[in-house]
Design brief:
The chain is of the alpha+beta class. It has helices spanning about 15-25, 65-80, 125-130, 145-150; strands spanning about 5-10, 30-35, 40-45, 55-65, 95-100, 105-110, 110-115, 135-140, 140-145, 155-160. β6 (about 105-110) and β7 (about 110-115) form a beta hairpin. The longest helix is centred in the middle third of the chain and has 14 residues, at about 65-80. It is globular and about 35 Å long. The mean pLDDT is about 90.
């Protein structure tokens, strides 16, 4: 299936390297390949401003994995990068992988909500998503390019070339 989008973020260690490594790991998931990827963006932290800026990106995958199996793979990649999930939100992290959309599937479950419930409010998701898939339709919410026009994107900027 195409139209599977994953958001990547990191702000500890070498965030750019962490995201590049994660993209390679995503491409290594069985029966999955990276189809497109955005460039890296820098964005301020969300919810807890007392931490370093984040590096963010979005990739589109083609996969035969079911959404739940893919989510388990994402959590494994996070864990391999040193990410510890302790239940606290908006904290610094070595890597964050969010399954944003899985085609037009919708689901609400404790382990996975599709589409991601807050993606339409976050410039650090919509800016890189619009770079690779401006016409993508987020179930119930609308096209990425339309949603992007409704939020402030000024704080999201390309990651420095030196990274």
């Amino acid at each position: 299936m195409r139209g599977v989008f994953v958001g990547l973020g990191a702000n500890l260690g070498d965030p750019a390297a962490s995201i590049r490594h994660a993209i390679a790991a995503l491409d290594g998931i069985p029966r999955t390949r990276v189809v497109r990827q955005s460039r890296l963006y820098r964005s301020p932290p969300w919810g807890n401003p007392d931490q370093p800026d984040f590096a963010n990106a979005v990739v589109e995958l083609e996969t035969e994995q079911a959404p739940e199996a893919l989510m388990r793979s994402l959590l494994s990649i996070e864990s391999d990068s040193g990410r510890v999930r302790d239940g606290q939100r908006n904290q610094p992290r070595t890597l964050d992988l969010d399954l944003l959309m899985y085609g037009q599937q919708r689901s609400v479950a404790p382990e996975l909500t599709l589409p991601h419930p807050r993606m339409h409010q976050r410039a650090f998701v919509l800016v890189p998503l619009a770079e690779i898939a401006p016409e993508a339709e987020i179930p119930v919410l609308g096209k990425v390019e339309s949603l992007l026009q409704r939020i402030d994107t000024q704080a999201v900027r390309p990651w420095p070339d030196r990274a």
